[in-house]
Design a protein that fits this description.
By secondary structure, the protein is of the alpha+beta class. Helix content is about 40%, strand content about 15%.
């Protein structure tokens, strides 16, 4: 695994407001935002130069400046100018301000006012709900790589600690694959769940799986669909039948943010560990598949269900699938897809290990 400290120097920087941003546009100081805000307030038309000022306020990468009109309407730039220049939003209607918050143009500030939301937040909402205002594929790919770089800064040190010092010293030790039954129990323990589109799939678009499958436990910006736990369980089962893995943080320090129904093509965590060469470490593996040769009838369904190619059926041997224990991530999709219940998920005595089941 690479040196993440060195990687952070080339991939991004931590801005003064605690937001990871691309080094091309380090998150500016309050004084700098105020200066840019006054500049924006003085313009009457929205030019590329104006959008460059917007980029400076929100921490957008330089390559997206020519396309920022796809993300920010003219009224959005004036709102950003107002809050960046330490002006009130009284000249805007309550509906306009509420819409800007919902679309991650603005964030609510602790003092009851508003702040310009980071471009990371704006890009996520845009990708989830506003993709009809499109950008060229090469720009979108660059934005996704920019997002992945930022995500690596967030989770990379914790993943590195898993390799160096073990789970007790990592803030990422509780992000794991959930078996279907575990995910059901988690959902049924809640009073309400919120359905969101998958931000990973909306951004990358590398697969044809369903989008509306993210089961969140909080409703950021109040734009998710509120579900009963039973309805959420039905969506969970639909995602499982479609071949999507279930992942979640299981410790309250991460806020129990929700259950993601992931694919191996678009999921930021899966792409992140591929970049780091740490696929065996994270999401933390807690189970290992075991095939019962007596029950197996060689239908091969499990081979296509496994996202990581851990099951194979080489020619010239018996028809029982062969498991590569190091490739198995313990997601359980092979087990739920077996028509003869011939695959059992065995708990690992030491989570993360590829052997030592109990």
């Amino acid at each position: 695994m690479g040196d993440l400290a060195a990687a952070s120097q080339t991939r991004g920087a931590l801005g003064c407001d605690g937001v990871h941003v691309n080094v091309s546009y380090s998150w500016p100081t309050s004084a700098a935002r105020a200066t840019v805000g006054r500049t924006l307030m003085s313009v009457t038309t929205v030019s590329e130069e104006t959008y460059a000022d917007v980029a400076a306020c929100v921490g957008a990468p330089s390559f997206v400046v020519p396309w920022l009109s796809r993300f920010y309407e003219p009224e959005d730039t004036r709102l950003i100018a107002a809050v960046a220049g330490n002006s009130a939003t009284n000249s805007f209607s309550a509906q306009v301000v509420a819409r800007a918050v919902r679309r991650a143009v603005l964030d609510c500030a602790p003092d009851g006012g508003y702040l310009a939301a980071s471009f990371h937040k704006r890009y996520e909402i845009w990708a989830l709900f506003e993709g009809y205002t499109d950008v060229p594929p090469e720009v979108r790919r660059a934005l996704n790589e920019w997002e992945l770089d930022d995500y690596l800064l967030e989770v990379g040190p914790g993943i590195e600690n898993l390799a160096k010092a073990g789970s007790e010293n990592s803030d990422q030790s509780d992000y794991t694959f959930l078996l279907l039954g575990e995910a059901e129990d988690m959902l049924r323990s809640l009073s309400r769940v919120y359905l969101w589109p998958c931000n990973c799939r909306a951004m990358w678009g590398n697969c044809s799986h369903s989008h509306s499958v993210c089961l969140r436990f909080e409703n950021d910006r109040n734009i998710g669909w509120e579900l009963t736990p039973e309805r959420a369980v039905r969506i969970l089962h639909q995602a499982d039948s479609e071949g999507l893995m279930h992942t979640a943080y299981t410790n309250s320090r991460h806020g129990h943010h929700g259950i993601c129904n992931c694919c191996a093509d678009c999921c930021f965590p899966i792409l992140a560990v591929e970049r780091l060469g740490a696929a065996e470490l994270w999401p933390v593996r807690r189970h290992l598949a075991a095939v019962d040769p007596e029950a197996c009838r060689g239908c091969r369904d499990c081979l296509s269900r496994c996202p990581f190619g851990a099951l194979t059926m080489p020619k010239g041997i018996d028809r029982t699938p062969q498991l590569d224990a190091h490739a198995c991530r313990g997601c359980g999709l092979c087990s739920t897809g077996c028509p003869r219940n011939a695959i059992t998920m065995l708990p690992l005595t030491r989570p993360g290990a590829a052997s030592s089941t109990r």
